[in-house]
Amino acid sequence: MPYLNREVPNPEPIDCRILTAALDLFVENGYHNVSVHDVQKQANVSIGSIYNHFGGKEGIAKALYKHLLNEMNEMIDSIIQQADAQDSSAISQCNRIIELLFEYTETKTNIIAFILHAKHSEFITNEIPICSAEPFSKMRAIVARGIKQGELKNYNSWVASTSIFGGAIRMIHLRLDGAIEQPLPELYEQLISSIWQGMAIQDES
Amino acid sequence: MPYLNREVPNPEPIDCRILTAALDLFVENGYHNVSVHDVQKQANVSIGSIYNHFGGKEGIAKALYKHLLNEMNEMIDSIIQQADAQDSSAISQCNRIIELLFEYTETKTNIIAFILHAKHSEFITNEIPICSAEPFSKMRAIVARGIKQGELKNYNSWVASTSIFGGAIRMIHLRLDGAIEQPLPELYEQLISSIWQGMAIQDES
DNA sequence: GTCTATATCCAGATAGAC
DNA sequence: GTCTATCTGGATATAGAC
């Protein structure tokens, strides 16, 4: 009965297993506290395969980075496309982005942690800082368009985009660090209300 | 003329030199990319002294961390004390904190970078996350008091504090990553205006 | 307390069989 | 392409003179 003894333990392609294992380990322990051997064990792969596929530890990190950044980029694109189809406002696009980021923080925690919480410059060389990468510049572009169309106040572009997304990103950090115990989607409504309407009860005049 | 030949190259106490050198190197290259030998060279000290004073690399990081966190704590305290003396509002206390953080980002860059931009959990073990440390909980306390006294909108405590400080912290990150080219103090006025009054031109109703 | 020289360990990377 | 066994460099840490 050979088929009973045959093990089918690893149905996923090998490079996926390596990336998944690396993502989990990097997020859990930090890139520099993870050895190639650790990844190898967790992925059920030999060291040789890792070097064949990715050329080394930094190669894994680079591949992960590009892959996940690309996923985030597609998420932003789909929001923009939907918005174009419905002719919707900059405000609702920003809201949708924050909503999804909060959702993913709970459901795809390690992806968000790797993209938004890791200091890539300490282990990935020759890569632009993530805040200059496509998805983030597209977020700023949405804000800039909102300003141009008179929907948002005419602040400096950086002030505007950090006022809108900075609080959300900070909340993600705090959630990932264990400071915030509540799932972020539960706080979403209050956050966006504060973003658009401000924190002060009365105008300062 | 012995006093002419006598070198006086290192007037600062030795542990200060070590900490200063380590701060610069850690911020520049990241903790894990700095060896004890690097610190030793930059500080003009022998390896033995470093182990005598701090017990090793992590000991240096811990000492730095405590020292700088303490400085930040004193800064917050002084703001609170001044405020109590003048009976000033939560809003003006928050503004003053942001103003000082922006100032220090330009003038004491490495201190801010180490405190706000490094991922301490990757190299300092058995330490509470920085967002739970004293200065940060005091910032949240200021916000909570502002809510209680009817000065700020009654949002969830985390939403309120991240709405107020999240944008500023995000701007500091972006500035340290080189994305924002303008000195932050120049953007201060716009930021606080946006924090208190919100980003939307018309109320969403 | 400070220094130099040295020991030890372990991570990243490679070689070569299969 | 995958594996095991091995090499090598460099980092942390120590020993012991001064």
Task: Provide keyphrases for this structure.
Arc Repressor Mutant, subunit A, mainly alpha, elongated, Tetracycline Repressor, domain 2, DNA-binding, 2 domains, disordered N terminus, homodimer
What report would you give on this structure?
The first copy, chain A, contains 10 helices and no strands. In chain A, 67% of the residues lie in helices and 0% in strands. Chain A has 205 residues and is mainly α. Chain A has helices spanning 2-5, 14-29, 36-43, 47-54, 57-86, 90-107, 109-117, 134-148, 157-176, 188-197. Chain A has 2 domains: 9-55, Homeodomain-like (Arc Repressor Mutant, subunit A); 67-203, Orthogonal Bundle (Tetracycline Repressor, domain 2). Chain A binds a DNA duplex (18 and 18 nucleotides) through residues 14, 35-37, 45-49, 51-53, 56-57.
